[in-house]
Amino acid sequence: MKKTIFITLFFLLSACNSTEEPSEPYFTQAPIKVEQSEVKEYWVFQPQKTKKFRGERPSWLPEQPGMMTYKLIIDSNGNEVTKELISTTPNNWITQQQLTDMSKISYLPSDQNTNRVPVEVVMKLAVGITRNK
To answer: What's the pTM value of the predicted model, to 2 decimals?
Structure first.
């Protein structure tokens, strides 16, 4: 669990330098609902060059540890189309605007996803929280 949290945080932080203009969403079909653990069967994170923060904290990153649950839609081009905040712990830990301000992550289709099936997934992310086993 700890490893997953840190990997997800790394991916979010490494995507912070995305400055490309967003393209129009493209769907080969309606997104299918998948579990967070199943996303990798459809889409694989595409590493991007990391931005050097030079000691600056991203404006969207909360100052305290917390957790969030949000709905994510990945289109047939592997682009994040929607990030919709569902809940946070503690309450109001992060806002919809902060979630929207996070850089969008690009994905490559997995070997099994030859039809580039778009997905809808509820993601859970903990930032700055370590759990003891």
So the answer is: 0.73
- Partners of residue 72 on adjacent β-strands: 83, 121
Q: What burial letters (b/e) apply to 42-55, b meaning 16+ CB within 10 Å? A: bbebeebeebeeee
Q: Are 65 and 127 in contact (CB under 8 A)?
A: yes
d(CA 118, CA 26): 9
Beta-sheet pairing, 119-127 with 107-109: unpaired
Q: Nearest Cα to 92, choosing from 72, 71, 64, 73?
A: 64
What's the pLDDT tens digit per position in 50-76? Answer: 555 566 666 667 778 899 999 999 999
